[in-house]
Every structure is written in structure tokens, then in C-alpha cells.
Amino acid sequence: MDVLVKFCMVGMKSDIEDRENYLEKIMTDFTNSGDILEIIHFEIEDPFGNKCQHKFSSTIDDCFDYKIIHQEKEKAVYFDIIFSFETYDNSERLSIEISSDDYIVEDKGQKSYLERLKQILSKKLFADWKKCIWLYDQESEFFATALYPMVHRTENKMRHFINEVMVVIKGFDWWNELVPKNIKVKLDKSKDLEGNSDSKISEYKALVSGFKHVDEKLMLIDVGDLISIITLREKKLTTINSNILNAFISGHEEFDIQKLRTELGKAAEVELDLWDKCFSKYLSEDFVRNFRKFEKNRNHIAHNKLIDRQAFESIRDSIKVVSVELEAAMNKFISDNLPQEIISIIEEAEAEEEEAYNDILDELIESQTGLHRRKREEILDLFEDNILNLYNFLEENFSFRADIEFSNFSGIVDHEDEQELFRVVYKITNDELIVYCEQDINDNWGEYSYINLKWRHGKHIVEYEINYTNPDYEQDSEEELYMPYFDEEFEQKKFECATNEILEYIEINFENMREIVDAAMYRIIKDGGNNPLAEIPCSECGEEYICVDETIAEKGLCLNCGNMHDLCECERCGKYYEGCDSDYEDDEPRICDYCLDHYKNE
Questions:
Q1: d(CA 601, CA 596)
Q2: 3-state secondary structure of 285
Q3: What per-residue confidence (pLDDT) applies to 352?
Q4: CB–CB of 190/201 below 8 Å?
Q5: CATH fold for domain 2-127
Q6: Sign of the CA dihedral 231, 232, 238, 244?
Q7: 3-state secondary structure string across 474-502
Q8: Is the pTM of this model over 0.70?
Q9: Tell me: the pLDDT tens digits for 23-65?
Q10: With 80 as the cut, is the pLDDT of residue 253 above it?
């Protein structure tokens, strides 16, 4: 028989006195619940030659073999389920093996019987054991095997696209000129199982000798580093014309590290933003997020982790989203052949790579003090990560409310003007709670930055000023060493306060009308009264929550999702139906379709 699934249960929670009865009860429960169509009995001959029917076969002590039948597309499919009790080092375990000669593992587009059988069986057994260890799964292997070629093609599409774009806009030496050191170093250092150091490139060339002449650096870097390349921001010094620096050089003024750092900091600017100036013209705003999801799924497949049908479909769809967009981006890039204005922008940003003096000084200070000075981008990322946590928390808390809708979180843009972050829309009244901010960033040592987080609903406005302070150092002039003065400080609890206050405000002011009307219906059923809802489904959400009681809400408004309907009241039966009074003449009766058919049949 072909083994389909094998797993084992370890660590009994309580002693099993009679193993045969234990398994008999489990299999009987499966049969009674309908999860097993039928258990095929074995014909066993006793020592006296008498034949009898038995639910299982046991040729080896503590090994029980059950044969079950399942109906698959008008075809009987037989499975063997073998339970084996085993003891290792005084520790008992139960091994389970599911086999079949005629079951075909394939993508059926829906949950297979094998998937349901192994999940139900393992969960049932888990109630009596401490751990469930999966050993082999042919179905999971099938799904992974189907996905891996898609992952491989899509990953290489990304590498191909980056290479095509970068060669055109930056030249054939773009890798050496632009790629950050932290990515390059991954190719220069690696260790084999014996701990011997070597580079990924030399290992690759030694293994694939036919491609020794090929520059394959982009093919060897991690998938996540591809995103780092397309979102690369390069900083360089502009022309420096400083009276202070001239005074230092000429010896007219005593050398001052703080003044030097300030002057060099003023000159440093972002000269090249690959995403903003190039890749964003071919890829959507969602691409980076979609590709990070692809990377996560790719690693899941590459590391041979278990997947089921639901995960297979989710990963497959994620791959398709990225693959289709990369295909379209490549086609657009080729057809556009990069407009001249983009080439000009990139060419203007080209200059000899050099490290600024303040970066060298920072490295020295950080190595001696153990402190880390967050740069502007890092401080913005810190604020943005906490706002994103706030957004995700709120969205998750109201994910089951169809009457509340969240706009996309736009992220923080690096400017000091007020900017909107996201909106929360109450679809019953179209009220909006808007969250926005403004910030002032100072990334020098010992300086503080703040974000002014605000939210507004109508005239109600709440503000939180949240500060971050970079660490600072002091210099020991005698020892010529830098010493820590104080560490970084961040008012993170204010984000938690803002999150809780916004949550409470939404719960109070964006009422759950569905719950309110459900309570009203309970009283009407109990004490009597008119139904406040039309007995027809909403065209948007499909729920029967369309309001006809104007003391509760506007007539025709779905209290579940906020969709508006035109309603007419049937003059014969008194029930509401979708229709508009303007479609009828003044003396024309308002009749629903049911009553209209009734009149026609009389």
C-alpha cells in the first residue's frame, strides 16, 4: 500500500488500560459521526478452524490494522489505518499510518477526504496525548511540489526586472556602486558544515563550473534583499561652502567636533531614491507589501513546512499577484525604454561613493559608548511602526462590523506639514473619524523629536504629543574616549493610551445598530409591536436588516452595512419591496411581484 500520511502521538496524559477498547471506541465514534462510511471487517480463523468477523487485524502485538471505505466520485476508495503502540526508553507512543492503493492525491479544488480524515483523527487522539508529531504527508508534499516552480519563476522574474532596470539607469557596474555593504557582505562570508569560511560566489562557481564566467551576484542574494535594492535611498554630500570648515582648515579657529558634525550634516542629502524616482513608476504602492508576503510564503515552501489545501490556495494566489505585476512592469519598462527625464535624474545622482566624516565619527562613538543614534529614517520608522500597530489593533477589533470601514494606512511622509494617516468611516451615517499627524524630526545626538498624533470626529479633536529623544554622550578629554551620558527615551505608552481612547470612542459613538435592532426585535416578539425591518435582504451584504422604522434610522437604510435602498409598501399585502415611488404614476397601485403574480393568476 502507498503510505499517504504518518504521524505519532507521544506522552500519554493517562494510562490506557485496554488498547484494543481504546481504539475501538475512537473508530466507532468516527463511524457514528459519519466521518467514516464503513469499517471493512477482517475474516479471522481461530485455532479450531472457526471463522469470525473482526473489525481489525492484529498480526503483531500492539499493532491494529483497520480498513475503511470512502465513496469518491461514485468510486469506492479503501484506506488502511494502522495504529502501533511502541515503547522507547520507558516512554510510550502511538504511531498512526494511513495508506491506500487507489486514492489519488490531487488538487480537487476543495477539502479532500484525506485532509479531513487526518485532521479529525489527529485532533481526536490529541485529547489523550501531550504531543502530535507529523512524520510524513504525501498531500502536503504534493501541494509544495506544485507551488515550488511558481515560486522559482516569480523570484527570478524579480531578479530579472531589477537587473534590466538597473543596467539601463545606472550602468553595468550598478552593483558595486549602489548595493549596500550589508548585502554584499552576505556573499563574501559563509561557512560550511565543518566551519570553514568561504564565499557564496566561490561555492557557486565551484559547483556550477559551466557558469564560472557569469556575474551572478543578484541571483545569490536573499529574496528579502531584493526589496532593499528597489527601495534603496542613497545619501551623499553636496558641495560644501562653509566659513566654519574653512576656518578649521586654515587654523583660524580651534577644531570643534560638534561644529564639524553640524556642518557636514547640513550638506548631506538624499540624492537617489530608487523607488520614488524609478521603480514606483512601474510597480504599484502595494507591491512591496505583496512581495514581503510572497517572501514569507516562499520561505515556508523552501523550508519544507507542512501546508494544507487552504494554505496552498492562499500561497498560490499570493504568488500570482506578484508574478502578474512583475510581468506587466517588465513589459511597461521595455515599451517605455525609460523616459529621458528619469535617466537625467539618475545621472544627476551619480557621483563617486564616499563616506561622510560624521558617519565615521558616529561609528567611533557608538563603538565606545554602546549607544545607537537613530537617524531620521529610523525615528520616522519608530513612529510609523507604533501607528501601524494602533491601526492594526483597531481594524482587527472592528473586523466583524460591516458598518465600519477603514481606509488604507498611508504611512508617514517625511515632511513637517499635517498629513492624514487613515480614516474610520461609520457607514450608517457616513460619519468619519480621521487620524492624522505632523512631526518634527531632529536626529542629532541628545536631541528630541516629536510626532503630534491627532484624531478628529466632527468638531471633537484629540491630540497627543509623543516624544523620542536620541541618546547622548560626553567626551573624556584626558582619556580621549567617548562616554555614555544618557540612553534613548521614547513615550510609547502614549500610543497605547491613544489606541484605547479611540477604540472606546468608536464603540460609543459609532453604535452597532444591528445589535440595537436585535434587542428591539426580541421585545417585539415578546410584547408585540411592528417589525422595524423590511423582510428582504440587503443588495450589498445580503442580511435582512433594512430599516423601515424612521424612529430608528432612515427608511431603506441597511443597519448592518449602511447601504441605502428605495422601498415601496405593497398596497395588497403590506410588505415592503425594492422600488421607487417615482417609477409609478400618481394613481398607479404599488404592488409587489408576489401579489402581482397572484392577480395575474386569478
A1: 9
A2: coil
A3: 45
A4: no
A5: Alpha-D-Glucose-1,6-Bisphosphate; Chain A, domain 4 (3.30.530)
A6: positive
A7: EEECCCCEEEEEECCEECCHHHHHHHHHH
A8: no
A9: 888 888 888 877 776 777 766 665 666 666 566 666 567 888 8
A10: no
Q: Checking phi first, is residue 480 left (phi over 0); if not, alpha (psi -120 to 50) or beta?
A: left
Give CA–CA dist 441/357, Å, rounded: 21
Place of cell 393568476: 601
The two beta strands, 460-469 and 448-457, are antiparallel
Q: Which residues contact 325 (CB under 8 A, 6 or more apart)?
A: 283, 284, 287, 290
Every domain of the chain and the residues it spans: 2-127, 144-349, 370-509, 530-601
Q: What is the rounded distance in angstroms from the CA atom of residue 122 to the CA atom of residue 117?
A: 8
pLDDT in tens, 444-501: 999 999 999 999 999 999 999 999 999 998 887 666 688 898 999 999 999 999 999 9
Residue 220's SS3 state is helix
- Residue of 383, 361, 386, 308 lying closest to 134 (CA atoms): 308
Cell of 106: 490531487
Mean pLDDT of the chain: 82
Q: For residue 345, is pLDDT > 60?
A: no
Q: Is 579 helix (H, G, I), strand (E, B) or coil?
A: coil
- What average pLDDT does this structure show over 564-578? 84
Pairing of strands 190-191, 129-137: unpaired
Residue 210 CB: number of other CB atoms within 10 A?
A: 7
Contact 64, 56 (CB under 8 A): yes
**Cα 406 from chain centroid?**
17
Are 439 and 454 a contacting pair, CB within 8 Å?
A: no
